[in-house]
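Exercise 7. Given the encoded structure of a 333-residue chain, write a plausible sequence.
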């Protein structure tokens, strides 16, 4: 197995990428190909203690900036670290690719270079979200602002397979994110999706899920279009950040508060870890012929390491083949 990594993707590249690669290899990670300027990457590896034996550098001198238009990146940045990572998968030299760079360009590279699975109309970004006792999967988290009914059904099927294969959630429960619990709520597309999901024997459908219920472990997969999903994620991130800021502010107000915070340090650390996106590495773009992991732009070495292990597990457990099989079966039905 070989996994390609965009060596110049993200706000902290190449340092965080190189450190993440070294961390992963120290824990028995797979063979890796890191794309980017060969001289600069070699220099960074030396700075961090040396290049691991199972890591190769693939020279890709160009860079896709974070604000670059995906279409321009595809046409004019073919020698970039991001595009070459995807090209390695297309050429059969890598089994998956990872990038913490431009999200739109990563999606475009995945769709046009790696290619869609048969039976999948639109790939979806599957993002882990924290829950009361365990995480759930939100799909789509931003790849498709407008969706047809069948797209939502496909997201449900893909999320189900991912949770069953990667997180051992047998009979993964699927909920449809909506403005109310009743089947008749939401737009016509969501109403039709509710009907199709309820009638699908391959989906353990629990019904509509309101936004406040996402964190209450009522389902394992939360389905929505990318417009709703991305807004939901951004609200979560903002609320979590504000909560942390309020706690820090309140703790400093009195000695009693400081003592209380000290006593609760273990619990607060556990809560932080459960809400930390870096624990999950990144968000898979499900529906492609090979695993593509989209990492947060500010990913640290910990997130990169975990993204490597997610990609490795997806290849080992043949997640893409399972996605294709179930999508073809449902299309034939």
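Solution.
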């Amino acid at each position: 197995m070989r996994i390609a990594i965009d060596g110049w993707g993200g706000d902290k590249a190449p340092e965080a990428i190189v450190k993440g690669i070294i961390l992963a290899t120290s824990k028995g990670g797979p063979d890796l190909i890191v794309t980017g300027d060969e001289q600069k990457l070699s220099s960074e590896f030396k700075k961090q203690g040396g290049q691991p034996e199972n890591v190769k550098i693939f020279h890709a001198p160009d860079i896709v900036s974070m604000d670059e238009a995906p279409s321009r990146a595809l046409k004019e940045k073919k020698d970039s670290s991001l595009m070459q990572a995807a090209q390695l998968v297309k050429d059969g030299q890598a089994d998956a690719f990872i990038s913490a760079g431009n999200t739109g360009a990563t999606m475009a590279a995945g769709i046009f270079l790696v290619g869609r699975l048969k039976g999948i109309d639109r790939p979806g970004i599957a993002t882990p979200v924290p829950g009361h006792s365990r995480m759930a999967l939100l799909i789509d988290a931003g790849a498709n602002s407008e969706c047809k009914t069948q797209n939502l059904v496909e997201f449900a099927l893909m999320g189900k397979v991912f949770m069953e294969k990667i997180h051992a959630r047998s009979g993964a429960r699927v909920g449809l994110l909506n403005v109310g619990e009743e089947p008749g709520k939401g737009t016509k597309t969501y109403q039709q999706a509710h009907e199709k999901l309820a009638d699908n024997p391959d989906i353990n459908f629990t019904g509509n899920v309101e936004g406040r219920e996402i964190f209450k472990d009522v389902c394992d997969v939360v389905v929505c279009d990318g417009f709703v999903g991305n807004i939901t994620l951004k609200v979560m991130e903002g609320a979590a950040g504000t909560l942390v800021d309020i706690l820090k502010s309140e703790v400093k107000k009195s000695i009693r508060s400081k003592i209380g915070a000290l006593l609760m340090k273990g619990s607060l650390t556990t809560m932080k870890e459960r809400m930390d996106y870096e624990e999950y590495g990144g968000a898979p773009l499900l529906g492609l012929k090979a695993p593509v992991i989209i990492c947060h732009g500010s990913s640290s070495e910990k997130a990169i390491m975990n993204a490597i292990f997610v990609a490795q597990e997806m290849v080992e457990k043949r997640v893409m083949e399972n996605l294709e099989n179930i999508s073809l079966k449902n299309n034939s039905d």
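Remark. The chain has twelve helices and eleven strands. Students should compare their own answers with the one above.
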